[in-house]
Design a protein that fits this description.
This protein has nine helices and eleven strands. The chain has helices at residues 31-48, 67-80, 93-102, 135-147, 166-175, 182-188, 202-211, 239-248, 276-288, and strands at residues 15-17, 20-24, 56-61, 84-90, 107-111, 120-126, 160-162, 191-195, 215-219, 252-256, 263-266. The protein has a seven-stranded mixed beta sheet, with helices on both faces. Helix 1 (31-48) packs across helix 2 and helix 1 packs across helix 4. The protein is globular.
C-alpha cells in the first residue's frame, strides 16, 4: 500500500492508503482504532446501499495472533452503524473478495498485513464489486473515521453471522474453470511441496491440492500466525521449501504469503523460480488452453 502522512498523534509506522491502513499491533493498531475505522467503512457502505434491507460487510482475516481480537473489534464497529458482519474466519484474501460478490454485500473488510512481518496487522477495504476501494471511496471512509461515524441506537444495530462455506465455494469456482482439467491432473498424481508460512494459505491450499489428487509434503502449515521466517515469498526466504522439494522428490514447490494472495514456485531441483513468473505462467496456460 502506498502511504500518505499519518496524523501527528499516531506512530510514524502507521501507513494509510486508498484501500486501508496498516501498522504495529498495540501501538498504531488497537481495538479502538480498528472499531472506529470499521464503523467508518460500514457507514460508507450504508451511504452507498440501495433497497430496504440491512447492508452487510464480509469480514475475513489471516492467521496473525491479533486477528481474533481485531475481528471482534471490527464486527462491533460494523454493527454499531447498522451493518451486518458476515464472518468468514481465517481465509485467503481472494476468498473474501469472492464472498462479497456471493453475498451481494456492500463491501468486504480483510484483517491482514499481507507479506509484512509478524508485528504488523492491517485493515483492507473492498467495495461491493470485490475490488479494493478507489481513491474517492477511500477518502470518504477516512473522512468518516476522522469525523466520527454516525452510530445507531438500540433499534438499528447490525447483526453478526458466520459463513463457514466461503473456502469451499471458492475451490468449487476454481475447479469449475474451463481451463482446468481436473481429471487429467488427478491422473498425474503430482507430488507437491507446500509452504504456507503458518498463515491463512493452508485453509485453502491443502483442500485444493487434495481435490486435485496431489500428494503433499508440507512445512509451516499450522495457521497460527507464528511465522517461522520472513513471510514474503521471495527467493531468499524459500530455502527450506527448496530443501523439502529435494529431500521429498516433489515435482514442484509452492509458497504463499500470509493471506495467500501471492504464490511463488520452486522447481523440481529446489530452485526458486521467482514470484514474477507466476502470473506469466498462468496467463500462458490460459492462452494456450
Amino acid at each position: 500500500m502506498s502511504a500518505v502522512p499519518a496524523p501527528a498523534t499516531m506512530s510514524d509506522t502507521l501507513m494509510i492508503s486508498v484501500s486501508g491502513m496498516r501498522g504495529h499491533v498495540g501501538t498504531d493498531l488497537t481495538p479502538e482504532i480498528v472499531a472506529r475505522h470499521a464503523a467508518a467503512f460500514g457507514a460508507w457502505v450504508r451511504e452507498s446501499a440501495s433497497g430496504g434491507r440491512t447492508p452487510s460487510v464480509v469480514l475475513g482475516r489471516d492467521a496473525r495472533t491479533s486477528g481474533p481480537m481485531f475481528t471482534r473489534a471490527a464486527a462491533a464497529g460494523l454493527m454499531s452503524v447498522g451493518v451486518d458482519a458476515i464472518e468468514l474466519g481465517i481465509v485467503p484474501t481472494p476468498t473474501v473478495q469472492m464472498a462479497v460478490e456471493h453475498h451481494h454485500a456492500g463491501g468486504g473488510l480483510i484483517l491482514t498485513a499481507s507479506h509484512n512481518p509478524i508485528e504488523w496487522n492491517a485493515l483492507k477495504f473492498v467495495g461491493p464489486d470485490g475490488i479494493f476501494l478507489d481513491a474517492d471511496s477511500g477518502a470518504r471512509v477516512r473522512t468518516l473515521a476522522d469525523q466520527g461515524p454516525p452510530r445507531m441506537g438500540w433499534k438499528g444495530l447490525g447483526q453478526a453471522r458466520e459463513d463457514p462455506e466461503a473456502i469451499a465455494r471458492h475451490l468449487d469456482a476454481i475447479l469449475g474453470l474451463p481451463t482446468i482439467d481436473v481429471a487429467a491432473i488427478r491422473r498425474c498424481q503430482f507430488h507437491v511441496a507446500l509452504d504456507c508460512v503458518r498463515g491463512a494459505g493452508a485453509t485453502a491450499m491443502i483442500p485444493l491440492l487434495d481435490r486435485l489428487g496431489c500428494r503433499v509434503s508440507g512445512i509451516n502449515l499450522e495457521p497460527d500466525g507464528l511465522f517461522p521466517r520472513a513471510p514474503e515469498p521471495v527467493p531468499e526466504n524459500l530455502g527450506d521449501l527448496g530443501r523439502l522439494v529435494r529431500s521429498s522428490g516433489a515435482a514442484i514447490g509452492l509458497a504463499v504469503d500470509p493471506d495467500a494472495d501471492r504464490l511463488a514456485m520452486v522447481d523440481e531441483a529446489g530452485r526458486p523460480i521467482g514470484e514474477d513468473y507466476t502470473l506469466a505462467f498462468a496467463v500462458r496456460a490460459v492462452l494456450e488452453g
